[in-house]
Every structure is written in C-alpha cells, then in structure tokens.
Amino acid sequence: MQTTDKNRRIVLNERPKGEPNDNTLRLEDASIPQPGDGEVLLRTVYLSLDPYMRGRMSAAKSYANPVEIGDTMVGGTVSRVVTSKNKRFNEGDWVLSQGGWQDYSITNGEGVINLGSDTPNPSWALGILGMPGFTAWAGLEFIGEPREGETVVVAAATGPVGATVGQIAKLKGCRVVGIAGGEEKCRYATEELGFDACIDRREGDLKEALKEACPDGIDVYFENVGGAVFDAVLPLMNPHGRIPVCGLVAQYNATSLPEGPDRSPLILGTILTQKLRVQGFIIFDTFGHKFPEFQKVMQAWLKDGKIKYREDMVEGLEKAPQALNGMLKGENFGKLVVRVGPDA
Amino acid sequence: MQTTDKNRRIVLNERPKGEPNDNTLRLEDASIPQPGDGEVLLRTVYLSLDPYMRGRMSAAKSYANPVEIGDTMVGGTVSRVVTSKNKRFNEGDWVLSQGGWQDYSITNGEGVINLGSDTPNPSWALGILGMPGFTAWAGLEFIGEPREGETVVVAAATGPVGATVGQIAKLKGCRVVGIAGGEEKCRYATEELGFDACIDRREGDLKEALKEACPDGIDVYFENVGGAVFDAVLPLMNPHGRIPVCGLVAQYNATSLPEGPDRSPLILGTILTQKLRVQGFIIFDTFGHKFPEFQKVMQAWLKDGKIKYREDMVEGLEKAPQALNGMLKGENFGKLVVRVGPDA
Q1: Residue B182: is it exposed, middle or buried by C-beta count within 10 angstroms (0-12/13-18/19+)?
Q2: Which member of A25, B88, B294, B301 lies 3.0 to 4.6 Å from B306 by CB, making a disulfide possible if both were Cys?
Q3: Residue B264: its chain A contacts at CB < 8 A?
Q4: What is the pLDDT of residue A63?
Q5: Considering only CA atoms, which of B62, B214, B216, B222 is closest in space to residue B142?
Q6: Cα distance from A51 to chain B (closest Cα, Å)?
C-alpha cells in the first residue's frame, strides 16, 4: 500500500527470456526523494501499463533505450504534486509524466503536462486522451487514410488503441471488422463500439472468419499485434491498401524466429503486387507535432459521445507485473491502468 | 529474320516451374494481320524485355492478368506504322505500344503513343524515357523522398531502373551506393554514373561490404531485386527510412518459399522500431498522372547530360527467350532491348 514514509518501486531484476516471470521484476523500498530547486515531488496515483514496456526489458536495439538492470521500470503516470519548487506546478495539481513504476518521483517539469487541480477523469490522460488514443488517431489519419466505404480491420479490438481506431473508422463511414479474444469482447465491440463485425480469435479458423467478414477485401489494416492476425490479413489486402504498424504484441515474448518456411518473400511480394504501404510509427516521435490537434478533436468526440472509452483498473502497484503479463496475452479488457494510490 | 510475308510470334507454350526453359515459349509463324477501320498495322522494330514478364507467365494472382497458354507474350514495343486506317497515325510514324513478342501487331490506337516520324533514339521510349525511367523517377521522388546528405542504396545498379535511381539521387546530393553483379558493372556505376560506391554482389560478404559502404546507415533503399540484398539492407536502415518496392527479380523464379526460420517477424519488427515506410508500386497504375511531368524533367536532364543511359541490344526476335532468362540472372548490362527488325 502507498504510504507517506517510503517509496515502493518496481525495478528490473533480470532481462526476461520469453515471457517475464517472477524473477524479472523486483519490488523494493526506497526513501522518498527530495525535490531540489526547480523540481517537483510527485505522488503516483495512476500507472499506465502498455505493450511497449516488454520491449524496454530487453537489451535489443529498439527505438528507445532499454531499462537497465536495477533501474525502476519506465511508465506513464498520472500523479499529484506533493511539493513544488517549480512555478509551473502547485501542490495538488494533477500531472501527466513519466513517473515510472513507483509511488513517488521527482521531475524538473520537462515534458510534464499539468492537468490542473480539478480535471475530470485524470486517468484518461494515460489512454483515450494520451498515448494510445493519439496512436490510434494519428496512425489511422495519416497512414491508414481510410475513405468512406472502405474496410478497416483492427485487432485487440477492445484495447485502447483498437477500440479507438475502430470507432474513428466508423465515424469516417468505413466498414469496421475487429478481432478480439473471447465472446464477451466481441460482443462489446459490435454492440457498444459499433463495429460491423468482430471475430473471436480463440474460436474457429481465423482466416476463414476474416474472409467472410471482409467480402470486399481489406483496405486498411491497423497493425498492433502481428503474428497469426497479420498472416490472416495479408492475403485479403486490396490494391493500394495501407498498413500502419504501431505494435506487434504477439511477438514481443518470442525468443527466436518461428519455424520456416521463410515467408518474407511472400510479404514483399504482396506489398509489390498489391501496391501496399506498410509503415511503422512511434507515436510522439513520428507525429508529436500533431498532439494539440489530436486533443482538440478527441475531446470534442468524447464530449459528443461519439467515442467510448473503457478502462481495466488494477488495484495496487504490486499487481503491475502480473497485469502486464496478462496484457501481453490479451487478458485485459480495456485500457490497463494500475491504481497506485488514492486520488487525495 | 523479319520479313514482309509472315508474322513470327513467340507464344506461351507452357507455364514455367522455376526458371523458364526451352519448352516455356514457342516461336511460330502466322499470317500478317489486316487492320480494320480505325486500326493501324505496326511493324515491330524494338521489343523491350523486362523482369515483370516472368510474372505474366505464371497463373498466380498478380497486378495484371497472366498471359494465356498459346497467346503471344506481352511486351512494350517501339514500332513503325505500316498501314494506317486511323487519323492519329501516318505511315512511317514511330509508335510506342504494347505490341508483344512478334513482328506485326494491330492496334486501334488506344494507349499508343505516337513518337512522330523523325524521333531520335526511338528505342529510348522503352527505357530511360519510358517505363523503367519513369519507375525510377516516380518511386524515388514520391516514396523514397531522398534528402540531401542521405544515403540511397539501389541494386541492379547498371540496369535501367537502378542506374537512373542512382543518378537522380546524386543530382539530389545523396550518397549513392549501388549493388551489381561483377567488377565491370561496378566500375561503370562509379566511374560513368557517378555512384559513390558499388558493391559486387558476387564477391565477398555482401552484408559486411554494404555496412562499410554505408557508414551512416541507409535512408532510402530502392527495392528492385529482393532476396539477399534485402536481407543485407534491412539491419542498416535508419529511423524513418523509406523502401519503395518496384520489383523483386531475385524471387520471380522461386517455386517455393525459402527454408526457415520465418523471418517475417524480423521484417515487421524492423518496420516498427525503425519507423520505416515500405511501399509497393506499379508504375502506371500508381503514378500514371505524373507521366507528362516525368517526360519533361527527364528530357531536360538527358539534354543537359545529367543522366546517362545504356542499352544492351540483342539482335533478333528468336533471341528474346534466352535474353529474358539471362536478365533474370542479371546477365544484361544496361536496358535489355531486342531489335526485331530494321529501322526502315
């Protein structure tokens, strides 16, 4: 439990081979840090859990530096200001920062967004109004470029990215087909989010089901999982189709490449003959300058009830490692957030 | 030899498994067709040989319909008008058309470009001023988007696409690294075309050589071959790199996928972490509206001596099958054109 006399933090204990296990992360106690001049002490209220975190546990070359052994795991947080020696922040303000997996953190304010003292749904800054929502919007708008009447497919359909991609595509007049794990999620995607169809990846033949759900082929596939879903999607892509790639959750725990045959000629061949555009992006890196536009658009959609948002809230910092593992297997239902401490 | 009393034509005899052999194509004699109202009889002077032709021999789904068994092989031709019953064409005019692998063809003029009666280098319409040159220009300009100081890599560096890509990239102030088969071609690429480096893919370790030639990584890889070159390029791609895909010659004769492991997760993973844009295009299909602009730009460059162009001329229609096979192995040196008949 969060207290006022120590800083619990979860550090990287060893680099995982495959799925993270009990030895991967370690909960330890530290003293609460003291802010210096121009700095702010933050108390974590909400910690975001996101698939990219698996990547940071590995030493492999990626778009961001790995977490070092013994260092606190990185992560987006919504926190409250405990003590401020920085004019931009007042005691009690809600802030969005990269506080990491711990109760308390220090910041000089750089890259920290002040959400004010009276913000509704502060945790949404980690989801629909933050990185996942922005990923969905920018990837779909600027790479997916969906046109009315086209078919858009997205996996992890009830996750914070997938659900948002699908709902935006519906607003643009597309046929939207989701893929999700389990009947309950599929029902949510069609009944609550308004998807035209949602395929349960745990039931039956994914390729056949997808073909049936996409009688006119696929124009945009928003790639956030990879693996079997990508395999099923590829042969159905229409000429001039677009595949924004924001994540590949299905392969993050892989310790080696899958058995052959080597299907890379098939991928390149399809890209050529179908004239596909496949483009990876790392949201703030690629589209950072679009963030203000995103916030304006998304806030309006939320206000008008055009976009729905669901959180999967886990209670307690100590539950974070298990919850992250569950997410990598698709066990969460909505945006996974850890409540680390009370609001006030 | 071309005569005035019969039409030699090369037809698809059977679909090849792997590399085309002596049974794939068949030379046969037919009577010279007669033009009806609005039609024109053309005599083939030059036949273009291009890698895409291998694809048309196969029944597999592609961007264009396959040639049917017994049908004349398709191909771009520069021909002269023998008889015209169409106002747009006069006897003796040079025309660029899809005449196919034969001495004579009939057209109603649709899609046929009249080059006039006194055009210099009429065969260039099959190369630097036609499909391959346009492919190089548009793929580089609109997908590759090279910026000054960036590194551009292209294979088949002395072929009509590769040589043009590299020379345009040099005009834009890029470092240009070619890959070609053999010392002579490599020397031509650096000494005649002005490439900064050219790697002989037949000598030594391609990956090592490429790494050495691209000390700042690769920003644009113009993909026209696939296979081992793609494998060597991928790990060197810089963040936000672009890969226009116009051809995959190295895999056109493949009868099955290569042995494992399956490297597709590696490709997708690199696209994601390096934020790559990989985009296939079929030139007239994707960029057809840009053709007039291309012609203007390229004609000016040729006039100013800024772009050099080399043809590999084969004498006689009957040599076309063997020449096509050679090209699929990289044996041509410059744009491969068959002289089917005399100029006049």
Answers
A1: middle
A2: B301
A3: 230, 258, 262-264, 266-267
A4: 77
A5: B222
A6: 13
- Delimit the domains of chain A by residue range: 7-127+311-339, 131-285
State whether A279 and B275 contact (CB < 8 Å).
yes
The CATH class for the domain spanning A7-127+311-339 reads alpha beta
A277 contacts B265? CB cut-off 8 A: no
Comparing CA positions, the residue from B235, B74, B152, B265 lying closest to residue A231 is B265
CATH number attached to the domain at B131-285: 3.40.50.720
- Complex ipTM value: 0.91
Contact A271 B278 (CB under 8 A): yes
**Residue ranges of the alpha helices (H) in B172-305?**
183-187, 206-213, 227-233, 264-273, 283-287, 291-303
CB pairs under 8 A between A and B: 151
- Partners of residue A227 in chain B, C-beta under 8 Å: 265
Look up the CATH superfamily of B7-126+310-339.
Medium-chain alcohol dehydrogenases, catalytic domain (3.90.180.10)
Q: Is omega for the bond preceding A215 within 30 degrees of 0, making it cis? A: no
A-proximal residues of B, 220-239, CB under 8 Å: 223, 226-227, 230, 239
A-chain CB neighbours of B263 within 8 Å are 257, 262-264
**CA–CA min distance B218, chain A (Å):** 16
Longest dimension (CA), chain B: 63
Cβ distance B322 to B297 under 8 Å?
A: no
Mutate which of A268, A277, A282 to disrupt the B interface (most B C-beta within 10 Å)? Answer: A268
pLDDT digit of tens for each residue in chain A (344 aa)?
999 999 999 999 999 999 999 999 999 999 999 999 999 999 999 999 999 999 999 988 777 889 999 999 999 999 999 999 999 999 999 999 999 999 999 999 999 999 999 999 999 999 999 999 999 999 999 999 999 999 999 999 999 999 999 999 999 999 999 999 999 999 999 999 999 999 999 999 999 999 999 999 999 999 999 999 999 999 999 999 999 999 998 888 888 999 989 999 999 999 999 999 999 999 999 999 999 999 999 999 999 999 999 999 999 999 999 999 999 999 999 999 999 999 99
